[in-house]
Amino acid sequence: MRISRDQLLSAYRRMKTIREFEERLHQEIATGEIAGFTHLYAGQEAVAVGICSHLGPTDYIVSTHRGHGHCIAKGCDVKAMMKEIYGRRGGLCKGKGGSMHIADVSVGMLGANGIVGAGAPLALGAAVAARMDGEGKVAVAFSGDGAANQGTTFEAMNMAVVLKAPVIFAFENNHYSEHTGVSYAVGAKDMASRAAGFGMPAHKVDGCDFFATYNLMADVVAYCRAGKGPVAVELDTERFYGHFEGDPQRYRGVGEIDRLRQSRDCIKAFRARALSEDLVDSATLAAIDSEVAALIETAVEEARRSPPPVAADVLEDVYVSY
Amino acid sequence: MAKMTVREALSQTIRAEMERDPNLIILGEDIVGGNGTAGGPEAIGGIWGMTGGLYAAFGPKRVIDTPISESCIVGAAAGAALAGKRAIAELMFADFVGVCLDQIYNQIAKFRYMFGGRSKCPVTIRIAYGAGLNCAAQHSQAVYSMLTSIPGLKVVMPTTPADAKGLLTTAIRDDDPVMFFEHKMLYGETGEVPDGEYLIPFGHARSVREGSDATIVTCGALIGAAANAADKLAAEGISCDVLDLRTTSPLDEEAILDSVEATGRLVIADESPPRCSLAADISALACNKAFSSLKAPVEMVTAPHSPVPFARELERAYLPNAATIEAAVRKTLAYR
């Protein structure tokens, strides 16, 4: 085990925060209080946290439409995120972006993105910027298995190899591209071998196993920081909710989600291993659980009370100057 | 002042800005050229010959020769800009906007807004546009009308060497994304260019000819045709007020409306097809805000609602020219 106790607890806190954030949103969205499309990350926490645990605030990530987990893992303010999802003026993006466009460039989070496949070129650009600074910074392009099939992602992988750019292509395989199975939509055997075909090292890991993900990513991030070029990682993970909130999920097998929650819950697996190997004690985890629950409760309460934007805000921030 | 071509003015401006700002990068296909060939790097220096020498001067981290991957050229420029850099992305032909429209339309144009004003995206996308070289339907289009309609973008079109320098300098230093349209037929135009720092603010039209009988609003390569039409009419005692918009977003509404209020007659010459075009936009502006001044219906001289054809005869028939502009002016003057 190459992880310190502090890092372990920090990772647990972030995974738990993502889970509670998403479980709570699932409830609140059902009330009708939150507008628009929301795509929940519950089930995939070990991917975002296993990767972002190795990143600092000066590293960059580019996220997807399923971006809440990446935002929290990279250090976006949870309460400001909740306000954003509620469409409040005090939200992280002043209520202009909503769930699909949360960003905070000050912590290196270059945006969730409503366009599947748009992120990889942006991460490549951030890596080009990082390379200029010569400080060993890296950029991570989070892509789902859907984005893995977009031409933009292929272009970015090729160009990253050509430029030897410090970018990590993280393919989160949650087995569903919206409502279509990966076994249908991905023509190749897997995404990792396809990425390897572009000329970069490519790995596969169980993204529901935080420890395996964390350990692999330690090496991957170190490789990129050393200026050796891009790396691809395919992370096998699970989506506990639908493509979007309200998705009736008729494409799921009978009892599939219950089974996944029993046998493929990355947080359960984390707790089981951390406790059985005496890495942490259950009282410490319970304390984190209550702190996270309180944070989410406060975030929702504050978001509810927070004032909405005003009509005049529509025209703000279209340009820096015009 | 020094006499030079539009091409030289653009080339010198890029180099001067690269020297001035170590945070500035440039990327595109063949901007270095020759990489991976017997000719070696800089065998090309840009297909329009404007980026030669940059690679040797500024190195591969700032002068980035890319594969043919337009989405990644624009996307990487955008990502670098979000990460605190400033970028010039070269797309060769304006038509290739079609390949990377998502990065332009859904990404760079919207970042600042979607992110609540907490980011900026200083990217200048240089694109060669326009018909006149018989390059046919996919290498000749004037796509500025389409891009002018997108909130979040600025759209700039220099026509003289001096404007090329002044507008490109402003574009590169601007904190917003700029679509910088360079007309292929104007690269060889010569003119005097001011020495040293020279910036032209966006949203200020240039007066090409002053006149009181009719207003001709235009941009890009049609400036020459409009000036020729005005000169011919002037010989008959008809004076035209000719405006070069320079930027279509922001648009110098004041200059257009002031002129229309003075002349009462408006001709708009626009190289794009007519539907939802710059011409239609300015026509609506005049009808809306200068209706009582208008003495005749607004005339739109545009390309037809067709792709750009190949054959010389067809391309000539496609493009507006001095004769069609002149005829439109006469038509507005004849209206009673």
Provide keyphrases for this structure.
heterodimer; A: 322 residues; alpha/beta; Rossmann fold; 5-stranded parallel sheet; two-stranded antiparallel ribbon; 10% strand; B: 336 residues; 2 domains; 7-stranded mixed sheet; 5-stranded mixed sheet
Largest sheet of chain A: 5 strands, parallel
Span from first to last CA of chain A?
Answer: 55 Å
User: What Rg of chain A is obtained from the alpha carbons, in whole angstroms?
Assistant: 19 Å
Helix content of chain A: 40-55%
Please name the CATH topology of the largest domain in chain B. Rossmann fold
Number of strands of chain A: 7
- The dominant shape of chain B is globular
Number of domains of chain B: 2
User: For the largest beta sheet of chain A, what order do the strands appear in spatially?
Assistant: 1-2-3-7-6
Strand content of chain B: 15-25%
Topology, element by element:
The complex is a heterodimer of chains A (322) and B (336).
Chain A: H1 5-30, H2 45-52, E1 60-62, H3 68-74, H4 78-85, H5 119-133, E2 139-144, H6 151-163, E3 167-173, E4 176-177, E5 180-181, H7 182-185, H8 191-196, E6 202-206, H9 210-225, E7 231-236, H10 256-263, H11 266-276, H12 282-305
Parallel strand pairs in A: 1-2, 2-3, 3-7, 6-7
Antiparallel strand pairs in A: 4-5
Chain B: E1 2-5, H1 6-20, E2 24-29, H2 54-58, E3 63-66, H3 70-82, E4 86-93, H4 101-108, H5 111-114, E5 123-129, H6 144-148, E6 154-156, H7 161-173, E7 178-183, E8 190-193, E9 206-209, E10 214-218, H8 222-234, E11 240-244, E12 247-249, H9 253-263, E13 266-270, H10 278-289, E14 299-302, H11 312-318, H12 322-334
Parallel strand pairs in B: 2-3, 2-4, 4-5, 5-7, 6-7, 10-11, 10-13, 13-14
Antiparallel strand pairs in B: 1-8, 6-12, 9-11
Helix pairs in contact in B: 1-7, 3-4, 8-12, 9-10
